[in-house]
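Might I ask for a little of your time on a matter of protein folding? Here, with my thanks, is the record as I have it:
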Amino acid sequence: MPIDDAARALKQQFDLEDLSKSPVLEKLASIASVLPLPYPFDKLIETIKGRLTSDALDRIELMLEACIDETNRLGTRVGNLQTRMDEPEAQSRHDVLTELVIDAARKAENTRPKERVKRIGTILANAAFETKPTDADEIEEMMRVAMELGDRDVELLRELVKLEGEAVLARGRIERYDAYTRRWEMGNWGTRLDPELDSVFSKLESYGLVSRIAPPNNLNIMADVQNRYVLLWKGARFAQLIRNLAN
């Protein structure tokens, strides 16, 4: 897409925003004026360069840097995508990403922990270069979840993804018996009782990433066993979108 066309489309988006009520756009513009943004983010932010600076730039800058790092890592995929897209598809993708970049900046501004901010940027970049059309609602939701999950939450989610992620992404689900017995017990938590597991996995369940598994009917009601959880498709997808970041 010609830069002029991309710039006009982005300007139309900003014209719909009340800049007096959207200070995040000023922050985004200030950072974009000094960062070497790669395709397609250079075009998406073209028309906001040079706008007024404001406070709290660091989180948005960190998000964009994570986005740039992931974009550079995906170099081959980026080139292939640019080559195969026709004009209508490129325009459609541009329009979706324009909204997502602004949304990511807002979320980064309101997120304190740095690793969470970086995950927002990584999700944005990975979503931009998937071969399938970008689902704006899904990516917005994934970035919202990234705002809320701490490092320990992500660490335990990734452990469950190691056990079940491939099967869940391929088939959409894991059989209940398999998830409760063999797969759960292969995790680094084993079969030990650990209150932290309940706390973390209950939080992950609240975001629709995992689901608690009801115990077998033949389990002695007096038995004290660790609650067990199964990975859901949304959890596997979230881990896929943040896959290059350390725990």
Q: What stands out?
A: DSSP finds twelve helices and two strands in the chain. Residues 87-109 form the longest helix (23 residues). The beta strands are 210-213, 228-231.
